[in-house]
From TrEMBL:
Keywords: ATP-binding, Isoprene biosynthesis, Kinase, Nucleotide-binding, Transferase. Residues 79-162 form the GHMP kinase N-terminal domain. This is 4-diphosphocytidyl-2-C-methyl-D-erythritol kinase. It comes from Brevibacterium linens. PANTHER family: 4-DIPHOSPHOCYTIDYL-2-C-METHYL-D-ERYTHRITOL KINASE, CHLOROPLASTIC. The gene is ispE. Catalyzes the phosphorylation of the position 2 hydroxy group of 4-diphosphocytidyl-2C-methyl-D-erythritol. Residues 219-283 form the GHMP kinase C-terminal domain. Its EC number is 2.7.1.148. One of its GO terms (molecular function) is ATP binding.
Length: 315
């Protein structure tokens, strides 16, 4: 028997990480610059999230399972989770031993609808970054943040969780004070909506948009726990553009309003619509009604604010 010149040291144990999905409680959209729109948004992290398991010593495979496993999630290096890990390798290479990250298998338990405006792919990237940082013994927050932003504008928020204002492309974050638990019903759609298409339509509809802003009243309503004031001032500037592709979005919003939803809101660029309920019981009633509404695929109940990406199991 020959002894390998560089015997492999013990392979670290797998690490399991959870990351939340999100809703945009307010989404102000301004002009496009260098291909990106100026945003002023209020993100809230939701208790409807993804669980990733990073398994060292694998073959770089990506396994997608869970409720939304069948949807078109890439299994190659374009998957946001893999991209996030590869970016971290590049950022640390030469200074740290990153070999453990090179052959990771990644198992994604997909509980956030794909291409629904709830940041599922971004949550996978955030979870992958937290898990990968753990596997190399911890990484400076600034480096993790840089990798997050390189994958996508929502990833930085999903690392952090809670409720926060996002400016720039959504990556410049400041925390927002909120009171109590928010009970949401998320109505997913039977068909997807392309984010670039919705932004392109926004540009056509708004050739000279006002600078993106979060109204002060929205922040005050969140801090004071006043849902009716929130309903009066919170809005998503992409709603008209999304409705122009899918008129049923307006009908579903109206159905929720008729059922007493405090605030129907398009999530991101849609087509998922979030409905703020008055309490957990109201959320149940709303979910039953929305589930029977034309154009709604599923009515998912969830709450916010939820924590950002965090390890749930690992050495
Ligand atoms: P956002 O709200 O951040 O705009 P979204 O929730 O609308 O995003 P995602 O589910 O993140 O959309 O997916 C958008 C596209 O990204 C998918 O259609 C898919 O091609 C690609 N993608 C890459 N990696 C992933 C991933 N891990 N999970 C889901 N989609 C991914």
């Amino acid at each position: 028997m020959t002894t390998p010149l560089h015997p492999r040291t013990t392979i670290p144990a797998p690490v399991r990480v959870q990351a939340p999905g999100k809703i945009n409680i307010h989404l102000g959209v301004g002009a496009a610059n260098d291909g990106y729109h100026e945003l002023a948004t209020v993100f809230q992290a939701l208790n409807l999230g993804e669980t990733l398991t990073l398994i060292p010593g694998g073959t770089r495979s990506i396994i997608v399972q869970g409720r939304y496993a069948d949807a078109a999630v890439p299994h190659d290096e374009t998957n946001f989770a893999r991209r996030a890990v590869d970016l971290l390798i590049t950022a640390l290479e030469g200074e740290r031993d990153v070999d453990v990250l090179r052959d990771l298998d990644i198992v994604i338990d997909k509980q956030v609808p794909v291409a629904g405006g709830m940041g599922g792919g971004s949550a996978d990237a955030a979870a992958a970054l937290v898990g990968a940082a753990h596997l190399v013994g911890g990484v400076d927050d600034a480096i993790v943040h840089e990798c997050a932003v390189a994958v996508g504008a929502d990833v930085a928020f999903l690392l952090r969780g809670g409720t926060a204002i996002g400016q720039g492309r959504g990556e410049l974050l400041s925390p927002v004070l909120t009171r109590g638990t928010f009970h949401w019903v998320m109505a997913t759609s039977t068909s997807p909506l392309s984010t670039p298409d919705v932004y392109a339509r926004f540009d056509e509809l708004n050739p000279d948009p006002a600078p993106a802003a979060v109204p002060d009243q929205v922040l005050k309503a969140l801090a004071a726990g006043e849902p009716d004031t929130l309903a009066e001032f919170a809005a998503n500037d992409l709603t008209e553009a999304a409705v122009s592709f899918m008129p049923e979005i307006a009908e579903i919003m109206e159905a929720g309003r008729d059922a007493g939803a405090v605030l129907p809101l398009l999530s991101g660029s849609g087509p998922t619509i979030g409905f703020l309920a008055r309490d957990a019981h109201h959320a149940l009633d709303l979910a039953v009604l929305l589930q029977a509404t034309r154009g709604v695929n599923e009515a998912l109940r969830t709450t916010g604010p939820a924590p950002g990406a965090h390890i749930v199991d690992g050495d």
